[in-house]
Known about the structure:
The structure holds 2 protein chains of 2 kinds. Chain A is mostly helical. Chain A contains 13 helices and no strands. In chain A, α1 runs antiparallel to α13, α10 packs antiparallel against α13 (299-327) and α11 (270-280) packs across α12. The longest helix of chain A has 38 residues, at 191-228. Chain A is globular. The mean pLDDT of chain A is 83. By secondary structure, chain B is α/β, with parallel strands linked by helices. Chain B folds into 2 domains: 13-241, 3-Layer(aba) Sandwich (Rossmann fold); 271-355, no CATH class. Chain B has 12 helices and 12 strands. In chain B, β11 (342-345) and β12 form a beta hairpin. Chain B is elongated, with a radius of gyration of 21 Å. Classes of the chains: A mainly alpha, B alpha/beta. Bound molecules: adenosine-5'-triphosphate (ATP), iron/sulfur cluster and magnesium ion. The site of magnesium ion has 3 residues of chain B, from α2.
Amino acid sequence: MPWNYILSRVAMFFVTIFIASTIVFFLPRISGQNPLEEKLLEEAARGGFLEDTDEMVAAFDEKYGFNDPLWEQYVKFMVDIVQFDLGRSIFNWPKTVNQLLAETIMWTLALGLLTLVFAFVIGSLMGAVLEWKRQKTFLMVLLSPVLTLSAVPYYLFGLVLLLAFSFVWSIFPLFGGYSRGIAGWPDWSNWSFIGNVLWHATLPALSVVLVSLGGWAMGMRGMMVTTKGEDYMLQAEAKGLPDRVMFLRYGIRNALLPQLTGLALQLGLIVSGLVLVEVVFSYPGVGGLLVQAIPRSDHAVIQGIVFVLALGTALATLILDLIYPLVDARIKYSQG
Amino acid sequence: MTTAEAVPETALDRRRTDDVLLEVENLRVYYDTDAGQVKAVDDVSFTLRRGERMGLVGESGSGKTTMAMALMRLHKPPAVIAGGTVTLDGVKLLDLNDEEMRQTRLRDIALVPQGAMNSLNPVYRVRDQIVDGIKHHTPKGEMPGKEVVNERVYELLNSVGLDGNVADMYPHELSGGMKQRVALAVATSLRPKMILADEPTSALDVVVQRQIMLTLEQLQQEMQASVLLVGHDMGLMAQFADVLGVMYAGHLVEFAPIAEIFEDPKHPYTKKLISSLPDIQVKGTFTGIEGLPPTLVVPPPGCRFHPRCPIYNDDEDFRGEFVDLRGSLDTGLCTTVDPPLKEMEPRRWVACHLYEGDA
Lengths: 336, 359
Ligand SMILES: Nc1ncnc2c1ncn2[C@@H]1O[C@H](COP(=O)(O)OP(=O)(O)OP(=O)(O)O)[C@@H](O)[C@H]1O
Ligand code: SF4
Ligand SMILES: [Mg+2]
């Protein structure tokens, strides 16, 4: 792999992050809301009365540099970002955004990655087999409900699952990432805790996997149609290759390439895709955090999450750029 | 089985040998479409001898590819083999089960693809694509070691005029001519008895075309394989083929040794074809004759060629050549009875009411 290719891709990655950080910095400042004011107003509403809110806001603004010239704030923000210091939440004072992210991101990543991998593998295989066999198999019977589902948003299907399996039949828990109020939990070395986590994750995962299955299946099926019509497929058959070899090494192997691009793009969207699912299931992930932060204008938290999202997408793209030429020899490591 | 020494060398000798390798009898291949059955190959019969090179010409849509694919049972729906037999070296191919047919492909009958750019799998190296064919025709556990296999790969590449290091290249790193050579190496990797080549050079430039044909010829000579070459280039056919088949609208209308076809074409369609060539040295490409090919869903009644036949239509230019024959022709037959392929002399078959012979 030539160095200049790697360097150009890595440079691209940093440029993306730089631009994303800049946008993240300016967006809340355009919104015109002052999070402190919101916080104080909320406190006031709760406590009944607060004197001199304006003065307090001014004092805080002074202390945290919100009165400094914009460029100074910007430089400070960027310096912090480089050190991965995302500031403090106002509503979860005095927790840092990093702490809040640390508490939530693993839940989201675990749920997102697992569901993505499951849906990708099962969906792609399903699509590939459907096109390859072209017979009325049980897969054919499965296809129409799966396709119908793919038109439904995750959270809506999640609600239905929740209603059916938690509310009506009580097979799965109604909310949360694990059962609360048990001494010593969360304890990741405890198998019954892990079991409990999986039990809680089942419905959220199911709502994502079942809904996204159809998309992967249709994508793969379409690619398989194209691949089946290629000259090398006819040639493979003329070579007397067994059906299995043609399916795996000629069919899937070629049809999978565009699917991988889709997979990498979806990787970057894991967190945002899960936001509403996490809300429906009261899941302790980043999505829940974001949904709390937005109405309260908890800018540092929103900025932190958006930054992490951008970082994730850029990282996924970078990794894809670096490995794609290994999977497909036709793609040259060229600059640009 | 004929041993290598016993197989005669020249085309003339080959013709004398009556050692039939491929026998096609009353083959019918139809496409079942919504518009009706497209009778792309309708009642085609011919025999090909061991080591013999057959050319197959005919205008676009006459059914050449359909027939070639059906011979290897590579036809895809909506094509169905509606009847007939294909016998390769005593084995009835249409009676084999799928696994037997799979084993037969490449080992006994191999395909050289159209000179298209895409007949190699883009994600694997040339080596892997030569080896996988060999591997899946070798009983489990009998595959020789890596070194032996590599040696064989280099040997094959050299036999088609390629350097051994091509083995480690990907298809996109090869030129069209190189790809076609690789395809030849694959096709000959198990020394098949029969090679089908459907316009193997159509996408290549003239110089490369000639080189590829020479390579094919060398391999054919060396292995004493029979070849069925589908193409449009009459000049190429004249150089390459021992016998020529002419297809028209799903029928084989003439089948004869190549020299005899050029000297004395029997079927009016062949006659028109030959006379439409630029000169007697047969350098010209097959451009076809005026008029449109008939639909194969509802072919013209009687002889499928009659709407364009110079004899039936009493075409001025051809009157002289056929005047004697035409006198005895019952033109009523041309519109009512589909003329069967008849053997006029040994190895001279024609489907036309002008001629008498054994059906
Ligand atoms: N998939 C298909 N469905 C329906 N009809 C088909 C199909 N493929 C081919 N045909 C028809 O079958 C007939 C024979 O086609 P074929 O490809 O065998 O001709 P060909 O002689 O090889 O022509 P060319 O010289 O252009 O390669 C044509 O009339 C064509 O329209
Ligand atoms: S059978 Fe009649 S129409 Fe057909 S080619 Fe012969 S002369 Fe012409
Ligand atoms: Mg063709």
